[in-house]
Amino acid sequence: MRAEFSGNDVSLRSAPVITIDGPTASGKGTIAQRVAQILGWRVLDSGALYRLTALAVLREGGDGTDEAQAARLARNLDVRFEPEAIYMDGEDVGHLIRQEVVGNLASRVAAWPAVREALMARQRDFCRLPGLVADGRDMGTVVFPDAPLKIFLDAAVEVRAQRRYKQLKDKGFSANLASLLQDLRDRDARDRGRAHAPLVAAADAITMDSSRQGIDDVVRQVLDLWSARGPA
Ligand code: DC
Predict the structure, then answer these.
(1) Which CATH entry fits the domain spanning 16-222: 3.40.718.10, 3.30.360.10, 3.40.720.10, 3.40.50.300?
(2) Which of 100, 124, 137 has the most ligand 1 atoms within 8 A of CB, as the residue to mutate?
(3) pLDDT at site 3
(4) What would the pLDDT profile of 40-49 be if each residue is shown by its tens digit?
(5) Residues 6+ apart with CB under 8 A from 68
(6) Which of 4, 186, 210, 213 fits a disulfide with 155 by CB distance 3.0 to 4.6 angstroms?
(7) What CA–CA distance (Å, rounded) separates 183 from 103?
């Protein structure tokens, strides 16, 4: 399924997009930030929008069983992205949305088409000159299907669990490696198996594996691929 661009939006048509899709903790967020910084482009952390929706559901006392509630909250999110903070209703929740409870609920609400639809225009709105690096699950397949460079970044689930464990510890959250590994497996299965916009490499994506190479190597490869394309 390919969604269409809205047609007459000049900034949307002219700004180049690099999409980086992949499973949780594959390193795509860090890589997207670095590539965007080097190119001087904007960055879209689409997972943050699903996490913010999940946090809004939790704050309204929801348990993630009400699609209409989640879609309403997704449509009305009052958010502002800053380089070091994410504000929702004026409060910096950048730290809070990284909790596993929020990530797990995000993966559940993300399976609902009404939620995905509610976040679509907001995501496409990030696409402005000089360019955008967009990370998520369906950036190359659904949100920016015409992106000139699409990366699918994978990594072994054990490596990703270790990374997530370290990230959580570094942020001061408690974490258990065995349950993280199980959570990641469950979340992968849900993200890959859902009917709408599942996690899958676009047919024209280049697949990379960050299990055995450092972030810097992947960043360099993405930049090389971008320069090898030549001017559009
Ligand atoms: O990338 P992340 O872990 O922050 O994403 C959290 C959840 O949001 C993930 O489990 C699935 C969902 N998601 C999605 O469905 N589509 C995206 N483009 C990005 C994230």
Answers:
(1) 3.40.50.300
(2) 137
(3) 40
(4) 999 999 999 9
(5) 114
(6) 210
(7) 10
Q: Is 80 exceeded by the pLDDT of residue 188? A: yes
pLDDT, averaged across the chain:
91
- The model carries a pTM of 0.90
Q: Considering only the C-alpha atoms of the chain, give the largest distance between any 2 of them, rounded to a whole number of Å.
A: 51
Compute the half-sphere exposure of residue 20: CA atoms within 13 Å on the CB side of its CA. Answer: 33
Residue whose tokens read 């399976």? 111
Contact in structure between 212 and 192 (CB atoms under 8 Å): no
- Among 55, 107, 153, the mutation site with the greatest number of ligand 1 atoms within 8 A of its Cβ is 107
Q: Is the CB of 42 under 6 A from ligand 1?
A: no
Ligand 1: atom nearest CA of 107 is 10
